[in-house]
Design goal:
Elements lengths: L1 H95 L2 H83 L6
Helix pairs in contact: 1-2
């Protein structure tokens, strides 16, 4: 009977001591999770700062492209006006019969048409740049929102891991306390 009682007590003692060991592994795992969550939060904050800088740069690029477009539109208007003036001058010289002036007017007209083509190409390129900058701004704004969500989620994970660690430590302390206070009866 004594042997059976000793065996039962030994098994009970082994099970009681094994549970805190498993809980200790849980605490160590929770510590590792906490460190990883802290790294994740720091990385997400770095990503968020970088994306915010990208958004600021995209806004500056967009503003600069808009200014370039305005300048190019003004240059196109001036070129058109200059072409009209050259055309009127050419017609007047034709009516007057001034052949040398007609040749010069045609050359000036060709030069102004070339300038108009060049300014239109610049305008087209600036509009493409503005479209691309708008797309970049939209993408970077989405990235900022995503990084904010990631930071919030990582903070929640960190909080949950800290809570789990506290629960595991508390459960470990509760499991050990009955063994410490229990006295084994002499045989």
């Amino acid at each position: 009977m004594r042997g059976m009682m000793a065996l039962a007590m030994g098994c009970f003692l082994a099970l009681t001591l094994a549970a805190p060991g498993a809980r200790a592994q849980d605490v160590a795992k929770d510590q590792k999770d906490i460190r990883q969550d802290r790294r994740d939060v720091r990385q997400d904050r770095r990503d968020l700062r970088q994306d915010r800088q990208d958004v600021r740069q995209d806004r500056k690029d967009l503003q600069r492209d808009t200014q370039d477009i305005r300048k190019d539109e003004q240059a196109v208007r001036q070129d058109r006006q200059q072409i009209r003036q050259d055309w009127q001058k050419l017609q007047a010289d034709r009516k007057a019969g001034n052949q040398s002036a007609v040749t010069q007017d045609r050359a000036a007209l060709q030069k102004d048409r070339q300038a108009l083509r060049h300014d239109r190409a610049d305008l087209h390129k600036d509009r493409q740049d503005r479209r691309q900058d708008r797309a970049d701004l939209h993408k970077d704004t989405r990235d900022v929102r995503k990084d904010r969500r990631d930071v919030r989620q990582d903070r929640k994970d960190l909080k949950a891991d800290r809570r789990d660690r506290q629960q595991d430590r508390g459960a470990q302390a509760v499991r050990i306390s009955p063994i410490v206070n229990t006295q084994i009866a002499p045989s």
